[in-house]
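Justification of resources, computational component.

The compute hours requested in this renewal are based largely on the per-chain cost of generating structure records like the one below. Each record pairs the submitted sequence with a full structure-token output. That output is archived, and it is also reused by downstream analysis tasks.
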Amino acid sequence: MHAMSALIPVSRRRHSLSMAPSLSLKEAQKLHAHLLKVAMDQHPRAVSELVEFFALSPSGCFFQYACQLFGRITHPNLFIYNTMIRGAVTSGCHHEAIRMYRAMRDEGMVPNNFTFPFVLNACEHVSAIKQGEEVHGVILRCGFQSILSVMTTLLNMYSRCGQIGNAVKVFDEMPQRDVVSWNSMIAGYLRHGDIISAQNCFDRMGERSSVSWNSMVSGYANLGEIEKAEQLFETMPMRDVVSWNSMIGAYCHLGDVEGARRLFDTMPERDTVTWSSLINGYTQVGRFNDALILFRRMQLADVMPSEVAVVGALSACANLGALDVGRWVHDYIEKQKLAINNNVGTALIDMYAKCGSVDMGLSVFHLIKNKDVVAWTAMIVGFALNGRSQDALEFFDRMLNEKLKPDAVTFLGVLNACSHAGLVTQGQQYFTSMRNEYGITPKIEHYSCMVDLLGRAGLLGEAEMLVFSMPYEPDAVMLGSLFFACRMHGNSELGTRVLDRLLKMEPQNGGNYILLSNIYATSGRWHAVAAVRKLMKEKGIKRDPGCSSIETSSGVYEFVAGDFSHPQSKEIYEMLDLVARQQKLTVYMSN
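The structure output for this chain reads:
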């Protein structure tokens, strides 16, 4: 229906504005202007349908205009109030939905069964438990406790707001229950980790849907009860793709990607969730190449990757330093017109930063709308990682100007930036502000940054004092940082003490013995060097073999000294021998 046809007087025809998706904001505003012109701006049906169009537009971008229109209505009826409450919830304006409900009640209107589900949904999203309890009282006083949809929504509201006792009371007092209400109660128990009550509820059910079975499988899996999850999975009368995904997700959650892959290879059908779960599973256990191979297979299977899959693939690229593959994923995102939101955008920024292309990450940062603290943090950490300390600190100031509160990860980036730039005083100020201004308790990673900062600046005494006065036991990373600072500034006495602690902490780490041997060698203590070498031999400690990686068009390959696990290792070593012979020949000919 064209907008101009909507200008026909309401008395002559029924409007259907909510069914006119082609109507633009400008056209709808023209219609409103016409209603004002002909003095029909208070006509109940015309105004109701106009409010409905603005409040429930699929994009949600016209809701503010609906609020303006609503504000001019002298006597809004129940339908208009319900429409505005529903529109507020749909648009994510949950506090506004609760305010509308209160205004409706202040005018003495009695809600109906269309009112309660949406206002309870709003209370659930903002954890407005007090307002939810008030709505519960109205439901009982108005006699709506027999409406199944209303009571199920009330049950969910209590459950998601942490009031499992009230949820159980609502469930027990329901005059009738359907499979949805039973599933809601099971989900409520599982959400609060009460697997026994969930199982009892499941056993009491008359008719069990696939949702019921899947909830229980997921519940056991999420609580680490993988054997019980497997038993339940095996006894299911019918398994759908959600059932299989629940088990695959459980295996991945426990780090058992081999078990997840076995299910993946045998399941009758797969969806986006299936692929995404396994891709992320591989990424979480450090099998980044497998994650990228599976991501490629996903495209070959003509399955549209979800946001989760894309983020998993980008994380794998970041950890491998696979810039070319990461660019390919970025091109794929643009080709498929996937939204570069905070999650995807942050993953892209992280990938580019870790692959040494921080300016590409900055270009992605500018594409993200409504940037959250995670996106800003990714950029700050990326700058610090690439030695651009001033840019990192400038972005931190800009983030604060945006009224965003930094988190613990943000301060890791800031302190690293100060460390690389040698900004001791500024770094100490940031460290102090964490607790005093932002209420963030420094973790051992933050103390490590401060030790690194002080050590690089040659303030070894202060660094040592911080290490042994902090509320954590120093880890190998921190002690290693302090040791290298001692080595840099020639303090062999403190370096030896630190390394002694490292040897006690990691008695089988050959690298620590090599470092101690090097300290002795630097000071000419050759007998001590020999003693360290002898100790290594007696304990059977060997130095970790060196490794390197190379990115090609077909993937990323890692090579470890003395390793023969690669399927083409024979050909690789033959080629290395050929290269070595050619180098020797070149040297011989040059002489």
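Residues 547-590 form one domain. Residues 1-22, 38-43 have pLDDT under 50 and may be disordered.
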